[in-house]
Please model this.
Amino acid sequence: MRMPEKGQDWEAVRAMLEERGANDAKWRDGRTAVYVFNAGEEIEQVQKAAYTAFMSENGLGPMAFPSLAQMEKDVISMALGLLHGPEGATGAMTSGGTDSITMAIKTARDYARSNGMAKEQANIVLPQSAHLAFDKAAHLMDIEIRRVPLKSDGSYRADPEAMSGQLDANTIMMVGSAPNFPHGIIDPIEALGDLAREKNVWLHVDACVGGYFAPFARMNGENVPPFDFEVEGVMSMSADLHKYGYAAKGASTVLFRSDDLYAFMPFKFDGWSGAPMTTPTLAGTRPGGAISAAWAVMNYLGIEGYKALQGRVCETRKRAESGLKALGFEVLGQPVLGLVAFRHPDLHSFALYSEMFHRGWFTSVTKEPRSLHLMLSPKHADVIDDYLRDLESACAAVRSGEAAKKEQVSARYS
Model:
């Protein structure tokens, strides 16, 4: 495509936009269970109105836009209030989970350097289920990644004892997830915290998925184990607002136990011809709309609103688990939030995924072990029974296809 010589009227451009999106996943109808967190049209309108209200403002300039600076402080304060941040805890908003994880690693690395640690190549020790964002950030900073197998007890949780064996004088960070993305399972953060304190290692909790879900699930009576700053060994956390915080993309938070730790995160430069500049995160320009939308949604919903939405998701997950087990599926581990991974003992998960995709469902898969994967939103309460009915049909189709293949093979060699 080349830029047109003359601009077109808005109606023509809007028609082209609608045409471009015609084949995208239809997430508003609830048939998408990945990428989008659908809390309904009401929240979507709050997102849009708050985002556009500060769409042109830039969070890079707190003196020019003190409104954004204060909204970011408010968001961080609310986050720390939910996640047991101690006195002096602080943080910043970022563009997403990868950004938050990258900044946490940069902070831990610089902290280690300032304390005479990691004199050789730095490394990070993390469970096999930890998000690939750690690998991406480590690649950028030339840090070694040491992935450790999960416990062999079928819990799909990190193995603190095995991780302990990978720690050394050059380890700048150990990682636990709350929950991990592949299986939706919360790692044993308390045990990891004890290990971190014993070995004097920085523990980061990746709560990008669960940071704005787990506190409300616990308030609703779900059995959510300690996972945040109430565990003394936790030095930093990542938690995404544009996931179960239901904010507009891209909005995440990276949080630190103390301001002394946070001090290693910002970039401060004055060795150029322009004015001295400080940027708290990797980004220069920081979209004001992402900050204002997060602030607005958090204030619009409040604790009661979040409890209602997250309670609906947990109830939907339980309905899904019950229906899946009735169809002969095994649910991996014991998820307590909104993610669930499951597999059938006799049917190939990827074949089932293909059948469900052709029936209009856009979800996800996990490869270790091969399984289907749902990331549920409040909207899925309206469609989970439809999903289970289609899954039953998909199972029948896969069985039929496998039977036909066996007949073909048998006929070929008979």
Remarks:
- The longest strand covers residues 171-177.
- The chain has twelve helices and 13 strands.
